[in-house]
Amino acid sequence: MTAPTSALEPSTPTRLDEWVVRHVAPNAGMMTGPGTNGYWVDGGELVLIDPGPAMPDHLATLEQVANGRLKAILVTHTHRDHSPAAMPLAERTGATVYGMPPPATPENDQHFRPDEMLRHNQTLRFGKLEITAIHTPGHASNHLCFLLNQNGMLFTGDHIMNGSTVVIAAPDGNMNAYLDSLRLLKSYPVDVIAPGHGELLNDPESVVDWIIAHRLQREAKVIEKLLALQPCTIDELLPAAYDEVDARLLPIARYSLQAHLGKLAEDGRAVVDNDCWRLVA
User: Fold this and answer.
1) Which single residue of 36, 48, 117, 148 has CA 20 to 30 Å from 125?
2) pLDDT (average), residues 166-190
3) Which positions ≥6 away from 13 have C-beta within 8 Å?
4) What residues contact residue 153 under an 8 Å CB cut-off, 6+ apart?
């Protein structure tokens, strides 16, 4: 399936195909791009994937679009730009909330309480819809992708975004888990990726392969720079390992550097002592 694309207009529902309408939340920013994508999926029973932030006007718009028909709210993960609208919208509409509970870390929405906790490879049926939940930890330990079997559209939340690579922030984020989850997606019949931020992505296998290659190239650069600077702290390594990145973005890149070093430690290739990192001989 080659899905049509369109401009990302906040608060304006945009039809993507016969099953899916995209709804961009009005929360544009450095970390969210044009805003968080929510997706209405309708097969006789209406489902909303990722309702977004609990902004009053946004909630009112979601309730209006639902028009008394909302059956279920599916949440990819509990970061604050994806899940906070779920509980108040469920209260207003009576919809059932599906997802995984929030990890006990500050970036997560601790108010999120799913009515049904999803399992890996669990298939949900709503009217004519058949949606498979795929557990994809890495960006977040409770991250899920949702595959709409009718059209091969994969809703990836923050596991895959359009326009940038995702932040992997410890302790909840994990680079090894992230790469494993990317590889896992290649075993599913995906035709198009519907990300949590940005436009649709066609040729999913190539997209996944590029992300894996990009992360491994970064790992190789981290190893190269660490070899030259060791022993060194993360903050000493950061400007060398990300020397092509705008200095204003280095505080964000630091999270991913920490994740890369964590992966090297898990792989037995690096160790840290008194906050200083070095490669294992």
Assistant:
1) 36
2) 96
3) 21, 22, 23, 40, 65
4) 1, 3, 16, 17, 19, 20, 147, 190, 191, 192, 193, 194
Question: How far is CA 279 from each of CA 185, 228, 275, rounded to the nearest angstrom?
Answer: 31, 10, 13
For 64, residues 6+ apart whose C-beta sits below 8 A from its C-beta are: none
pLDDT in tens, 3-34: 444 568 887 889 999 999 999 999 988 888 89
Q: Which residues contact 245 (CB under 8 A, 6 or more apart)?
A: 253
The reported pTM is 0.94
Under 8 Å between Cβ of 190 and 209: no
Name all contacts of 60-68 with Cβ < 8 Å and 24+ positions apart.
61/11, 61/23, 62/23, 62/38, 62/89, 63/89, 63/92, 63/93, 65/13, 65/23, 65/40, 66/93, 66/95, 68/93
